[in-house]
Amino acid sequence: MQCPDVVVASLDTNSFQSKQTVHVNERSGWSPAPAGFAPSADWQTEQAADFADIRQKLAHHRSKPGKEYSTKLALPRKSDSMGWCQFCLGEQIAMKIFGRKDNKKTVNDEKALEGSNLQTTNQEGTPPLLSVLLQINQATLLQVLEYHVEWLEEIGFSHDQGKWFYALLVCLEKPLLPETTSLLRTLARLCATLRASLVFYSTD
Could you tell me the CA-to-CA distances from 166 to 50, 51, 66, 160 in Å, in that order? Predict the structure, then answer.
């Protein structure tokens, strides 16, 4: 009599639970889309094509020699997260984010916000125009993207921040650094979590 290729023993594993030292979480960490919010395959293909087209147009624009802008903004320093928050999203959102972090807002925080070099911005922030994006080098752009991920986790999604996310992702240069890839995974998980909290209201 020939033995089968695969033999599985029937064991009672309850006796081993007290000796278990490692627990493996089989969950992927991704929150499924609720009913009514799952994008169709056609929609995903269309968005990916539009995104690739915009990246190509940006690359073509960057390749033009001698492209200068008459008006240069005074951008915040790379390490000035509060300044970038006010620059991108406006003073009100910046005060909300940096005022609620651990409920530890200090006089120094207020002075830092007031002293940010953002005289050229308004109360509502600066939109991610092409003339603005081309003045941000890649190292600073990656740092600003990381700031936006932190702000998304802090106060949730807004339409204005969505514009900045899209623009920053368009400007990312390849090959991506491992840290950038990890950051994009974090962003995707946050977006999936936010999407899972949405409620679909039928118009029927």
Answer: 12, 9, 26, 10
